[in-house]
Amino acid sequence: MHRGFAAAFCLIAVCALAQSSATSPRHFDATEYGSRIALGPEWLFAPGDDPSYASPLIDDSHWRVVSAQNQLSDYGYRDLQHAWYRTHVHLRPDVRDLAIETTHVHGSYEIYANGALIGGDGNLRGIDYRYQLRTIAFPVRSELIPASGDLVLALRFVVNPKGEKEFYTPLGPGSGVYLVSRDAAIRDQSYAKVLS
Is 0.90 surpassed by the pTM of this model? Predict the structure, then answer.
């Protein structure tokens, strides 16, 4: 009886560990990627606006892990104007026609794939309120995905002010960042236009 309970507990713990490591921002396992997969909810996070944060070569081992299911204020952040989110994605080496799709994001932003700018939305020179209602997709050029399948995604944000010392969390509850095929991206954007 006790052995059966212990074995079941171990199996549950192993499954939970496998699931959490599959979605870890230090090693997000997307090797089973088909046409769409949600990134997160956990991201590596750093406040500030250092352009070197786009590089896949920087050491982000000291970056804080935050969840898009929470507000940044839950982690003690106040009065931010700029922020970076990163995740290390591991794809199959044969993945092609990949795009990054975003929806319901607060603030203006740019997206970098292995250090190369692939797109963005809004004005990064000003601090104006911006909320992305529509779905937007940014293609990832095939040459940006190495033979290893390793892809570092970095998102640079100008943070929306909410009040004098408050701000809207850029990737908070309800927002989304996805790996999608280009066919799925075209379909999703067409569907979003029909609904708007």
Answer: no
